[in-house]
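Posting this for the archive.
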Amino acid sequence: MLNYIVIGICVILLLLVVYISAKPISMGIEARRNINEIKDTNFDSSDPSKDEVKNTNKIENISISDEIIKLNELKKKGLLTDEEYNKAKDKLFN
């Protein structure tokens, strides 16, 4: 009789653990699917927020290239040494 009680308690605990862990597992699977869907769409143009991300990256790239051009002009005019130019350029990239 004691064996049946112990087995019953073990089964109830097992079911409880499965019930408690089922939701986080399903959430993880759903998150993985969402990540794969995002990778597949590759910034769908119908979502304006994704366009803003693209535009921000373009602005950053343009400003970095503009800054390098300005630094190069200063170097050509003799206002910057090679060492100062390289330090400023490295600072832009980091």
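The chain has two domains: 1-42, 47-94. The longest helix spans residues 2-41.
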